[in-house]
Amino acid sequence: MKIEIKNGRLIHSTTEPAPSRNENASLYIDNGSIASIGEAPEGFVADKVIDAAGKIVCPGLVDLCARLREPGFEYRATLESEMRAAVAGGVTSLVCPPDTDPVLDEPGLVEMLKRRATMANLARVYPLGALTLGLKGEKLAEMTELHEAGCVGFFQADHPIRDTMVLYRAMQYAATFGYTVWLRPQEAYLAADGIAHDGEVATRLGLAGIPVSAETVAIAAITTLMRETGAKVHLARLSSAAGVDLVRRAKADGLPMTCDVGIHHLLLTDRDIGYFNSQYRFTPPLRSMADRDALSRGLVDNTIDAICSDHTPHDDDAKHVPFGEAEAGATALETLLALTLKWADTQQVPLPFALQKITADPARVVGLNAGQLKVGAPADVCIFNPQAFWVVAGQTLMSQGKNTPYLSCELQGKVTHTLVNGQLVFPG
Amino acid sequence: MLTVNPQLTADKKLKHLLTTEGLPKKLIEQILETADQFVSVGDREVKKVPLLRGKSVFNLFFENSTRTRTTFEIAAKRLSADVINLNINASSASKGESLLDTIDNLAAMNADMFIVRHAQSGAPHLIAQHVKSGIAVINAGDGRHAHPTQGLLDMYTIRHYKKSFHNLSVAIVGDILHSRVARSGIHALTTLGCPDVRVIGPATLIPTEVSRMGVSVHHDMHRGLEGVDVVMMLRLQNERMSGPLLPSAHEFFKNYGLNAEKLSRAKPDAIVMHPGPMNRGVEIESGIADGRQSVILPQVTFGIAVRMAVMAMVTGN
After folding, report:
1. Would you give the DSSP letter of residue A132?
2. Is residue A305 annotated as part of the catalytic site, yes or no?
3. Measured between CB atoms, does A256 come within 8 Å of chain B?
4. Rounded Cα–Cα distance for residues B209 and A46 (Å)
């Protein structure tokens, strides 16, 4: 299949040697790869021409945290529904956390997930294996076996390891083989039963607080153990200004650390909870305006490597309960791009840089050959209309989860085409 | 995000009572004035007025409380309503029924009003947003968030003894962190123009950034009570008396229990309040609880009138 994407504005920004682009040019795809940019290859006859006039052509998005809910939570979402959501949102590579049921702690489950994903033939799926068996924080999972089955790293998801010795050993063991340890920095006891950022809003609403120290104490422990073990660590979902400062210092010291932030944490604060609106319950919690602004600055100075959707689809019942009983998180694969554009717009960040944070940079974190528009690379491409407005509505979201704070909101920037491996997967 | 105050109608009348926060000053004053008219009902031989005749009031207590439930029941009965008491701990919730399913079922029985107590902050808000118009929701205490009828009866009591809020100093003492009574009191006091609200307790029991609610924080009770007109003591739950928050009930009483010596720092005519039930010897010395400055029992009496006023107003009377 030969595809020509013409008249579009190609945007591709990277910190790597590959040249960045921001130009009107045609993209030629042949046999799943990018064959040429600008000039058609000799004798190229397109089977399909996509006119991208007025649109932006960028690498397919790479999402560092998307819950597909399989196995185990099919009542909330299925692989099929969430992969359709992904490609509708321009996301072509998905890193999936192991917090499924059963937990992704054995190779058979990982192989099954990968097989199911391949059969769906939509986005690419990169599972993270569980760092410890059952995510219980007690015994190590079989990392080598899981790695061979296709896991790109090892994650504790939202189940922080309480026993610091287990964390130390897990990092030591992972470092032996050069595996990256993914950790969401949260000290279990300080977070305990907390449900909202420990600040004025939680005090006013009478919600148990999660102090910033739950994040900073964890980061301090992790960086200390990194120095001792030499482990590579990816910190998932920073939430606080103080946390960003600690990561900035760790990186300045040369520690092999990367980190990400959830898109909602760049746009929302605890004040948005209003009168106990459970759509605003997140893990980690939405924090103060000062924290939100520090996260933005951290992205801009590359302390934070990437933005992720932290896609967490729920059934309606999970949110139609009191705030403290509501499940945390939002469906976000389909809003990731538009919300990133919104962030770039409000922060006056150049568009190529914002796109880099959801393409080339997350790909670099995982070591994927993705997130770039370069000759020879797999043709994973997202085409979007930056001017198009659309309303987030339950009926039109592909994701089985309709839980998002942006329900009924109008967003700008709509994906029109998504290609994975040179195949048009959206519109399907 | 712009959100309309869910407890008011478009023309700023009381639709639900969920919290004292954001209640207009005029409306609070109107509740207190309406309560004035109901205080005397309790002294009559026939303690009833027919304002809520034919209305069904459901006492929905997802958390046990005999006392508060009883005061609501008495208030509703004095207004001639039919009262149905449901102790949900023992029924549907334990069978796995969701909160909103329970509400839908009771609404289908033509409920006019839900009096809700729930362990989760915000549960009455959820119910108020869910029920069809014409059903009123009154918060009888949700988690740490609010206990607005208690806050209002405390205001009624203060007004009764002190007449005006404009030159008052009020101290709230004890477990502020977990107290819905404290939060409701603070919002009502600041709305009514009380210029000096102090919270007193150890740092472990003072919520983060509480000063943003318009109060000053004191850890030394002697200094905190200096010159106050009103001392509001709070209940300390048994399970918090020893552990990471406090070493012992004994030490709590030593530092923050109200005794004659500490009370002597307040104005000579200061009143002493407590929402009950009291832990004598933990929050308050018996001699003070029963002493001349104590208005703890009048609080209970006024509570019924205030609850009658709120019930009458949310049903459009």
Report:
1. B
2. no
3. no
4. 64
